[in-house]
């Protein structure tokens, strides 16, 4: 720890150490509070006695022999001072409070992060950020956004930890590097798993899609540095915690779910002593939620919603009115943290409910955007407001994490006075616990994986104890409902209790009013927040557009005026690695043969919806900003909630791992997405009344179009009577909707479906490696079996490119070998790097065993292009049906059924060598090649005056 002075003792040796860590003389900056020059030893003396907490810097211009003499005298003086005032030395050695922030990278989280980054670093030094990937964001998007924010702030030195592939054994042994993707209660040996708590968080609009992209502002605003997620190289959350916490005393802020911190404490009890304090935003103790209350003079139609509840699960208040999101994210983990013996200060809803974003604060914020970080925060807040799902933004949006960071640093600044005196919140000690399961304890009803089916409960827990009752299984858990009353489930409730279960915690009870009563801002923290964010010290250096002297946004569109365009094709993809390679291929086929009209995205498979930005970037690279991209439903058929559709179950998508080889890698294209040029097109939450939003935002015209809208508009561009061919490379969610919700199936010429497994014998297995009970299904069918059934029964002209045939063309070595021989177009180079990365990851780590699955996905694109006699395809007609019964062990399997099956063409085989050649040659073709090779090329462009490019 280069910046962490050793503790001072009464020896000259240590004294020298102290001074050796101060900045060199030439670096005298405003980090230094007091400067003492030779001859001012009296002043030093005074400061030693009275300068509580301040760092003292000794320097000045001394030359020649004087210098040595002075130094000797000076040291003697210092030693004398130490002898006399030994005790007060702790004031000069006062080093900054080291802080580790564990966050779920929600909007309010980076408010908190930026507030911390702006503080005086000699007082508060944020050393590390670890990401909780089990709540409002997805790991790949969260980590890269963090890297970008830190780059903007000039803080590439701050460690960032995310993920990890460790698991928890059935006997409760916690392996190193558990990634925190799943709550402890559901953490097994992989990163794939359910969503019993996380399903309370919306997946699409207003939920993870908007938080992953920060409403689209992230890519429009943040500059991009050299740090990024890279597979197997990314420091994990646990590694970063061990590293930073073992280095010395540190304070931990937890502003997401508690999984990472709990895993750390359970696995490293010997390092607990280094954690001085834990500050938590979360829970509600005596809170009364002011959201969803009917005004006094309201009409009878006004329905009270959360009004008066302890908790804030706005998607779930009917079953659990007690929980707050952060604690509900992993109640068992929160219990570990609160009961760890480490002093905890809690900033619950009790306090944050009293600091809502008022209209007046919003207006004041709008007027104080003097720094990039203030701009970034304000623009995000504005978009959150403008897209809010009802007209209650100003009574629903509070300062949660940012307020917590303010309260925490103010308490720390006051050296942890006994009752947590601070500028921003009233504090009170309370005896609380975290409810992890519901009474009666000791029942075994299949809801508690820590007990059910185990001979010995996990973690040596006791039957009949507080952890052994019913655990809420999901949003609509029937156990939780009470007829004609509020739900009874209390999972995640920070409840006041007495007796041995209680832990004494300092609790913030309300936000302090602004002392300046003439101000229109009614809370003291509002003033501090705006002041700190707008300080010139430690300000952000630039945003994306000001980083470059000649930044400009260009849309590339090809000129097809004199060309006779080929068959119209729509490509439907789930953004798995192979889909991007297939997309490159489709863009390389001469437009006279294949006219790619549109891309539809099914975010129900291998990648999260926010990953749509990679498609925009790839199209930009290839000069095809003219191709529309439509975003499909975020839930597979029958998975979204009947009562509140933005949330839903993860019955099928839970088969995709969250970590390595799964979402983390898809969402970042295995660390390579950021090498693509940045497109001016991107996902944005901009929206309009016209399309069903509650109100128009500033730029409704930029709104992300939906899959069905793009489909409909594509049909309008076609000559009457002409038809479209569809290639699907993911779950059939979009195609099923086209069939059931539009009257346009007759406009579909043919459908090529990459997916499905035709099992020829009992050991001819599918590829669902995360669902061992289901031996014969293939991912694309399993991920949305009801949509697959709809499509296969539709009577459309279908050709299936099944798993077995894909497997015949899944040799990395062959594909890479051919690519090496072809012309080095930017697209060939990019695909080669991606393939090489998948291949080496497969060789390196068992989590990447399924990589050839993605290589096989390219086959559909190559086959549908047709007219390749060398490919020697063999096809067979077969009557098939797909199982969709809601049974995990069977859904997605394909049966050959002569009586009830529908006849489809099955691609049985192609010549693999011809296939590899076709792929490589097409990518190396200099026609229809990239117009902008990479982000590096784009940066060069933005550093060059337009007339010189
Ligand atoms: Ca948070
Ligand atoms: Ca795919």
Automatic annotation (TrEMBL):
Annotated region described as Disordered, given as residue ranges: 681-700
Domain of life, source organism: Eukaryota
Keywords attached to this entry: Hydrolase, Membrane, Transmembrane, Transmembrane helix
One MF term in the entry's GO annotations: hydrolase activity, hydrolyzing N-glycosyl compounds
Keyword Transmembrane attributed: yes
Membrane-spanning segments: 74-92
Presence of the UniProt keyword Hydrolase in the record: yes
Residues covered by the Inosine/uridine-preferring nucleoside hydrolase domain: 99-439, 569-916
Similarity remark: Belongs to the IUNH family.
Designated name of the protein: Inosine-uridine preferring nucleoside hydrolase family protein isoform 1
Taxonomy of the source species: Eukaryota, Viridiplantae, Streptophyta, Embryophyta, Tracheophyta
